[in-house]
């Protein structure tokens, strides 16, 4: 049996509702004053406790009983119907202690009837709040394990015999929290409650703790209207904008914000594990902080009302300040790329088509004449374009301008100067980068980068796939989020460059296999577990309108071919950009992203593998980690003291990947951590500069190194372990590829380093921590966002698109999890000694 001490919140409006003031604004002034005073007094004396146990049971349908292992049972149709499907039951007794009851009785005896009533109502509100906190803790824990939870039911509720309260008291030990049940089945303290709920895989989590519809107390002033919880207002501030959202009491803040398309940071999808969903909350009744949440917050956060949205259930009106995540800093330059290695030959072309006007001698129809001039007997003309044909031809005096793709006429106009654009998109698990390209010249006109909106449902591909498996409508939700973001990017380009979306005729997409499945709205379930089978690997070419992407209605989207469940078109894009597939000499390419993809080879053959490096090197899974956004600490150096830089010189908000690598390298150089990655004690570091030594701190019970005093940003022991896992996975991948290829590090001619922060990392530091083999550090050529460059190349050159299929055919995929030597190399590579 377990005992929990949970925080309670007492909202004055709810106390007033209990008192009978349905509209709290109309309560008399003196009542408001008394309520406020009584709440203040109550908060110090409430002793909220829950004792509970998790029990297995058997169902006897004939006897309509749920039978526990010791022979005790619950009976009746109501309990069987509510709980039989559960895998186990939670039996609980909750109490707020006896002090409120004592105060209420004292007030009555002194004739202070109003105060007595107020204290009584406060007791009810506190008990409700305690039950809500307990239910929220249960549902979150169950959700994490893929279980659902029913709402609480109690003996005496509906037609459940109240005498079965005694069964609960026999099966758990409420005396341990000071609650007794007397012979008349009354609990002492009075403000206590005995409840049961079912937890199981086949159960859908209920929308509220207790269902008012099933409660017999018809006149309860707190009864929810039409089964709906009370409405609360949330004022959300983001940047210079403000939005008002109406929500229901008890709803989770993280879910409310994401449902309303407010992008808050968060990489675990609200599962309480990443600590990234920080928001500032202002509410009249400050929300208390749960122990689990406290681990992610430092003193600065707590003082500044920063909370993790996924830990907060809304109970009253509140203001929420969402931090601005400015577009990520993505490398768009490409020093390592040769630009003269392919010809500009887009599929989209503009043709001027001048036909003879109709005459008695030439009575051919418009379309025939058009085909004749173009020399395209089999020209495809969509109905929409056909409808416009007669008018456009005549308006232009039979001298039109058409946009043609292959043998299809995509649009026509009577002006010869109309624009013609394409967009290349790299869908990363963390970041999206889109390039606007002028299809007449092949020149890049604009670039836009933003965080992947799906990331709130998990930082890595497996969490996203799990969301599509576990959540109702999960696949549609992730697909919609992506399409919506792509349409927003298109709108951004149109506004920024003063162009019409109809002038965008083609888009190319690269991304890992999961991202491309989610883009097309295709189930990616098979990728999550062995044998990691995706639904498709082929390249697709479809009309953009089929996906709801708003470019020219006849425009196309193309996705590049995929290699395996974990190596996608983004890797093909990088290979294309590096030209390694056309080189005689052996090259190594690795893309450090949320996953680490690696390729080795030359024009003869290539081997590829993917490591579950995790998102640590992109700042996720790191206590104060962040993406490459404004304010991210991107380089760190220890001299006399810690020196760091941030993106755009903004105030520090967290540490991004390149900063993470620098910190570990410096901790190693100064001997602050040993070769197993463990922090040394201050005594062991007596010889180093005291300014550095004093930065060794305790962060919520974990050893940590303070990077910035003002914001409290630090790097913890747990963070070092995350990076060790990531770098060991990448190193092991590189080693296995070279072994399989039968080459030594010396025989590798070039090392192409791709990835959003590839150009920003300090290669020497990356080699010092063992992310890159030291023997290769002088051969490194950062190519920036190689995947994005590959997407641009395929947009502006049909030959480049064809080359992607050749690359796919040339690559052999190696599954590391089935490679015998992987585990050994991985474990050896965890230590820093191995690499220094
Ligand atoms: S901890 Fe809230 S989203 Fe991860």
Instruction: Summarize the biggest pleated sheet.
Output: 6 strands, mixed
Percent helix, as a range, is: 25-40%
DSSP strand (E) fraction? 15-25%
N-C termini distance: 50 Å
Count of discrete domains: 5
Q: Low-confidence spans: pLDDT under 50, at least 5 residues? A: 218-222, 327-338
Radius of gyration: 32 Å
Question: How many separate helices?
Answer: 22
Ligand set: FE2/S2 (inorganic) cluster
Which structural class should the secondary elements be placed in?
alpha+beta
Silhouette: globular
Overall mean pLDDT stands at 87
Number-wise, the strands total 36
Strand order of the largest sheet: 21-20-19-22-24-23
Brief description of this entry?
This protein has 836 residues and is an alpha+beta fold. The protein has 22 helices and 36 strands. Bound molecules: FE2/S2 (inorganic) cluster (FES).
